[in-house]
Amino acid sequence: MEGVLHILFCFLFVHKIYAAEFNFLSDSQFLTDKDTLVSETGIFELGFFRPNSSENRYLGMWYRNISLRTVVWVANRDHPVPGASPLTLKIVNPGNLVLINNMSVIWSSNTTASENATAKLLDTGNLVITNILLGNYLWQSIDYPTDTLLPGMKLGKDYSRGIEWRLSSWKSNQDPVPGEFIYEANTQGYPQFGLKDRGVVKHRSGPWKIERFGGISFSGMILTFMINVVVKPGNFEHLKYP
Ligand SMILES: *[C@@H]1O[C@H](CO)[C@@H](O)[C@H](O)[C@H]1NC(C)=O
Ligand SMILES: *[C@@H]1O[C@H](CO)[C@@H](O)[C@H](O)[C@H]1NC(C)=O
Ligand SMILES: *[C@@H]1O[C@H](CO)[C@@H](O)[C@H](O)[C@H]1NC(C)=O
Ligand SMILES: *[C@@H]1O[C@H](CO)[C@@H](O)[C@H](O)[C@H]1NC(C)=O
Ligand SMILES: *[C@@H]1O[C@H](CO)[C@@H](O)[C@H](O)[C@H]1NC(C)=O
């Protein structure tokens, strides 16, 4: 790791005169300053930002075409980077995507591969790290939702992988650290979803029974999305489609 950080440290002194747009990151590329990773048809963009003129910087994903920056995912929401020293996003060791500031790792995907890996932003708003040799995903951002559920994303639990997909609000529009509100699955008894305010349930979907959640009525409403619930041993998920 030390060797890698040393090389990165040298990169930081390469003066950049323009912001580059990448379609993917391989072992030999890195993102810094105003560089961005752009999805195939340009729907989403990943880069560094300061929310609403905060002092802190974050690695985040937003809609490229919406001029009022609309952030849908944040990597280091718990680890803000104050100041102006360069942030660098890079794949190291191969297969581990890391965010580095001043030679220390701020955020890491914690993944490894035996050979080169690439990081790519999909048009669905999913940042994926692909094992080049096997073609599988080592990691994907939709397994770590922040406050936004995009079409195709899941909420619920995957017991086999120990993953819980839940939404948590930003603390304020200046600070993406998890705030008061959480929307998550409750799998005691018939599964259902609940909105909690500092741990206190404010809204429940009611248990899922056959075709709908007991406590939600869609009659009279125009359906702009569809709920798809999957309950099977070891897995409970809830998807919304536009
Ligand atoms: C973004 O906006 C431009 C200009 O309005 C438009 O031509 C382009 O198709 C849009 N791209 C996407 C991905 O929506
Ligand atoms: C943050 O955004 C809100 C509106 O979303 C605005 O009223 C406020 O002035 C902004 N604060 C700063 C420090 O930019
Ligand atoms: C970088 O880290 C070193 C050691 O922790 C510290 O002395 C220095 O002030 C930091 N520089 C910046 C620009 O944050
Ligand atoms: C990577 O591991 C660290 C230390 O265990 C943990 O704090 C962090 O949340 C992990 N990152 C991801 C993306 O899971
Ligand atoms: C891995 O990266 C090295 C250096 O960038 C390159 O020479 C090699 O062809 C890559 N291997 C694969 C399997 O892509």
UniProtKB/TrEMBL annotation:
<protein>
    <submittedName>
        <fullName>Bulb-type lectin domain-containing protein</fullName>
    </submittedName>
</protein>
<feature type="domain" description="Bulb-type lectin">
    <location>
        <begin position="22"/>
        <end position="142"/>
    </location>
</feature>
<dbReference type="InterPro" id="IPR001480">
    <property type="entry name" value="Bulb-type_lectin_dom"/>
</dbReference>
<dbReference type="Pfam" id="PF01453">
    <property type="entry name" value="B_lectin"/>
</dbReference>
<dbReference type="GO" id="GO:0030246">
    <property type="term" value="F:carbohydrate binding"/>
</dbReference>
<feature type="signal peptide">
    <location>
        <begin position="1"/>
        <end position="19"/>
    </location>
</feature>
<dbReference type="InterPro" id="IPR036426">
    <property type="entry name" value="Bulb-type_lectin_dom_sf"/>
</dbReference>
<keyword id="KW-0732">Signal</keyword>
<keyword id="KW-0325">Glycoprotein</keyword>
<keyword id="KW-0430">Lectin</keyword>
